[in-house]
Amino acid sequence: MKKLVLLFIVLVFAPATLRAQSHEYSPLVEKTVNYKNWTLNDLANNKPVDLRSLMQGKKLVMVLYFAPWCPNWRNEAPVAASLYDKYKAQGFEIVGVSEYGPRDDVKNFFGPSGAPYPVVTESESREDRDKTPHYGYRQLTGDTRKWGSPWNIFLEPVKCNATGDVLTEKAWVVNGELIEADVDKFIHDRLAANAVITPCKQ
Hints:
It is a single chain. With about 200 residues, this protein is of the alpha+beta class. It has one domain (about 25-195): Glutaredoxin (3-Layer(aba) Sandwich). The chain is about 35% helix and about 25% strand. The radius of gyration is 19 Å and the shape is globular.
């Protein structure tokens, strides 16, 4: 009888446990994206902020798209925060772009102290999914997930266009959760390569 009860518990609770621990890791790959500059409202003050302004004085910027309700984003969030804390003094920046969830949910996720890095809002409704630039970029890079959270793109300001809509034609992207060791090495190497900060190319 005890074995039957134990088997029942395993069958009932194991799927939920596996779901809670599931990941969508994806490698860093260079893709043609034609990534454009944007102006979006920041999370803290609901004021417009321009991506180029957030990139100023930085050596490497990771734009991190996420949905506040997404379990895979919740897996990646502490990894992103750890990488930011490790490299921010060396010129690394993260810019979070929230998708498909209300601003209040994003604020609640980060808590009273707020996000450790700048966060802006691109969309607040799941109905906006197919209409966002985020969705378009994912299609270009072969991301077949329904929601694409998280989705990460790395920008090197020294290689970006200083004017015009398109910041960069090609960029390194992660169509899923970061593989921490690989991304840590990538950040380290790119920061070293871009040791001297210069303006975006003209």
